[in-house]
């Protein structure tokens, strides 16, 4: 085989350039319109789509997935005690966010509610129960649990506290040991 002449070398270079240009144009045509934008001009929706694309190929541990993408917890029905419906609720809320509405005994002030709820939150935290606290009114606050199964442990602790009136979990109220509004059935 002979040496390439200058004209055949130019022809080969032209063919390679055209092929590279066609491939580049084809790839550009496959991109959606939002991906063709300069990243400086990306909207929040564009950034979210880009993040979803990155996450598609990435193996993310279950506990790091957003709550709505996590698989439901596996509940072993053989361990379920029909006499204890709270245990079933506890198992079903494992790994899910749960909010509990709490009330402090009256009369109270916003400062007293803040002080007591902060004290109880610290005590829960010291027992490895993670709860975020939000004050609603002078006598009411919310404990939000990232792992809903911990809410029942928190309830067991809170109902024993002096100054604690009531906690509502899954629409069921639980009155504190020193509650002034405790129904007669619970006395």
UniProtKB/TrEMBL annotation:
Residues annotated as signal peptide: 1-25
Biased composition (Acidic residues): 53-65
GO cellular component: endoplasmic reticulum
Highest taxon above the source species: Eukaryota
Gene Ontology biological-process entries: protein folding; Wnt signaling pathway
InterPro entries: MESD
UniProt keyword terms in alphabetical order: Chaperone, Endoplasmic reticulum, Signal, Wnt signaling pathway
Primary localisation category: endoplasmic reticulum
UniProt region (Disordered), positions on chain: 53-80
Localisation per UniProt entry: Endoplasmic reticulum
Pfam family, one: Mesd
Family statement drawn from the similarity comment of this UniProt entry: Belongs to the MESD family.
Protein name as it appears in the record: LDLR chaperone boca
Source organism: Galendromus occidentalis
Lineage, highest ranks first: Eukaryota, Metazoa, Ecdysozoa, Arthropoda, Chelicerata
């Amino acid at each position: 085989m002979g040496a390439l002449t200058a004209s055949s070398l130019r022809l080969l270079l032209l063919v390679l350039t055209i092929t590279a240009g066609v491939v580049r144009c084809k790839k550009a045509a496959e991109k959606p319109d939002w991906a063709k934008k300069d990243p400086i001009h990306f909207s929040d929706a564009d950034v979210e789509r880009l993040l979803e694309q990155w996450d598609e190929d990435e193996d993310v541990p279950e506990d790091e997935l957003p709550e709505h993408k996590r698989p439901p917890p596996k509940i072993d029905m053989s361990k379920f005690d029909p006499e204890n419906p709270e245990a079933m609720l506890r198992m079903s809320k494992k790994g899910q966010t749960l909010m509990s509405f709490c009330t402090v005994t009256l009369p109270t002030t916003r400062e007293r509610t803040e002080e007591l709820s902060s004290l109880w939150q610290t005590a829960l935290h010291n027992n490895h129960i993670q709860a975020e606290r939000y004050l609603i009114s002078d006598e009411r606050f919310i404990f939000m649990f990232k792992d809903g199964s911990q809410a029942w442990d928190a309830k067991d602790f809170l109902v024993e506290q002096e100054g604690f009136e009531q906690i509502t979990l899954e629409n069921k109220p639980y009155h504190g040991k020193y509650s002034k509004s405790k129904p007669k059935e619970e006395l």
